[in-house]
Amino acid sequence: MYIPPLKATQTQQPDTGKLRLYVISTLRSQPIEDATVTVSYTGDPDSIIETAKTDSSGQIPELTLPAPPLEYSMAPSEYQPYSEYTFRISKEGFEDLDISGSEILPETTSIQRAVMNPAQPQNNFEDIVIPAHTLYGDYPEKIPEDEIKPMDTSGEIVLSRVVIPEYVVVHDGVPTNPTAQNYYVRYRDYIKNVASSEIYATWPDETIRANVLAIMSFTLNRVYTEFYRNKGYDFTITSSTAFDHKWMRGRNIFESISRIVDEVFHNYLSRPGVRQPILTQYCDGQRVTCPGWMTQWGSKYLGDQGYSTIEILRNFYGDNMYINSAEEIAGIPASWPGAPLDIGSSGPKVRQMQEQLNAIAQSYPALPKIAVDGIYGEATQNAVREFQKVFGLPATGVVDYPTWYEIQEIYVGVTRIAELV
User: Fold this and answer.
1) CA–CA separation, 357 vs 361, rounded Å?
2) N or C terminus of the chain with fewer C-beta within 10 Å?
3) How many Å apart are CA 84 and CA 132, to the nearest integer?
4) Residue range 196-210: mean pLDDT, rounded
5) Given a cut of 70, is residue 341 above it in pLDDT?
6) Cα–Cα distance measured from residue 353 to residue 20, given in angstroms and rounded to the nearest whole number
């Protein structure tokens, strides 16, 4: 376990990463103001290195924290490439929460979401332990499967088209373990969690994008074919690396990975003449070899050489692999307007977005209220910019594709309309 020196000398300056931590309630995703957050090294939890309070958006000030040298995550190494931190969070009226093992990589921003439960008479503490990253820890290798599921078996395919689900149900264990808990996880959050657990955020963007597409296509194959439900299970996918991907409850995600998922979450991988998303399996390529599959370290080296996303994917899966788009995104009030909204835009899509921002501002008072007039003026631009700052998006004041869908998801969360449809 890597524990950086508490005081680095002038000749021993450690690399650093950034941390954004925000605290919300399980009730309607409300931000929790004035929660106390203490930060310590996971290997030395009693040595507090930072204490902070959350603001009206549930956030603490961004922290810069020591991390191992960048080169540790750039090639397979015996050295742990990330430092681990423990967060202790308390707020009157809520159960205390401990999160240990949160990862900080150098030259990246980690985003830690802490979800607190209202206090209950029988329980006043929750402890989340984030396990080792899959490229560093010891996990079972993937059991090979056919990448295309048979379509001539009665009941095997139950969906007529590829739909991005609002939620996936994650079984936190192997399929046959009846004691493992099921978790309802928003699709984008699931993909960000898995990608942050299985690749390093320090890698080239094209490599991250290729791996994210492989993770999404695999997941959507499980959704499209109703793979586990057709076997009598009540979940979408598992957290076992032997069967699916590693999902870690409560873990941090990384800004570079989150940004890319937001850009491409409607995509998947396909082959000509095949309706279902391809079950794109992969392995690390170092401890485990997997001919015909993508290797994570191999994709990293191709990214270093300037390969594009599709070139990386075709290098492993063949030249007849294509990037496709889903026909529908479930669980949101209305679809993407087709072009960014900016100063001068007008119409029903602008009005819808203004109404949603005002609804979100009821829970996030840092966001200004705006007139709902269907006209994208300076006040709307400012409200969008503040929304982007609060939710970790580039603060451009323009409603681009990632911003549009972030507004939709936050709106659904704070108004609970998803429970009414």
Assistant:
1) 6
2) C
3) 10
4) 98
5) yes
6) 26
In sequence order, the β-bridge partners of residue 399 are: 341
Q: Which residues pair with 113 in a beta bridge?
A: 22
Q: Which residues pair with 127 in a beta bridge?
A: 98
Concatenated DSSP letters of 117-161 = PBPBTTB-EEEEE----TTTS--PPPPP--SS--SSSTTT---SS
* Structure confidence at residue 9 (pLDDT): 35
| pLDDT at 7 (0 to 100) | 41
Residues in the chain: 421
Of 133 and 6, more confident: 133
Q: What is the C-alpha to C-alpha distance for residues 132 and 114, in angstroms, rounded to an integer?
A: 19
Mean pLDDT score across all residues of the chain:
92
Please provide the distance, in angstroms rounded to a whole number, between the alpha carbons at the two ends of the chain. 46
Q: Which amino acid is at 38?
A: T
Buried b / exposed e across 199-226, counting CB within 10 Å, b at 16+?
bbbbbbebbbbbbbbbbbbbbbbbbbbb
The rounded distance, in Å, linking the Cα atoms of 166 and 188 is: 8
Q: What is the pLDDT of residue 10?
A: 38
Cβ burial of 6 (10 Å; 0-12, 13-18, 19+) is exposed
- What's the CATH class of domain 15-129? mainly beta
Question: Which structure tokens are listed for 344?
Answer: 């001068």
User: What tokens were used for 255?
Assistant: 């800004």
Structure tokens at 258: 């989150």
| Structure tokens that stand for 28 in this block | 């309607």
Residues forming beta bridges with residue 186, ordered by sequence position: 167
pTM of the model: 0.91
Contacts of 103 (CB under 8 A, 6+ apart): 82, 83, 84, 110, 130, 133, 196, 251, 252
What per-residue confidence (pLDDT) applies to 249?
Answer: 97
Q: Domain ranges for the chain, please list them.
A: 15-129, 163-329, 348-419
Query: Given this model, what pLDDT does residue 11 score?
Result: 41
CA distance 105 to 111: 11
Q: 21-66 pLDDT, tens per residue? A: 999 999 888 999 999 999 999 988 788 999 999 999 999 999 999 9
Which tens digit of pLDDT belongs to each residue from 87-111?
999 999 999 999 999 999 999 999 9
Residue 199: CB partners within 8 Å, gap ≥ 6?
135, 207, 208, 211, 257, 296, 300
SS3 for 350?
A: helix
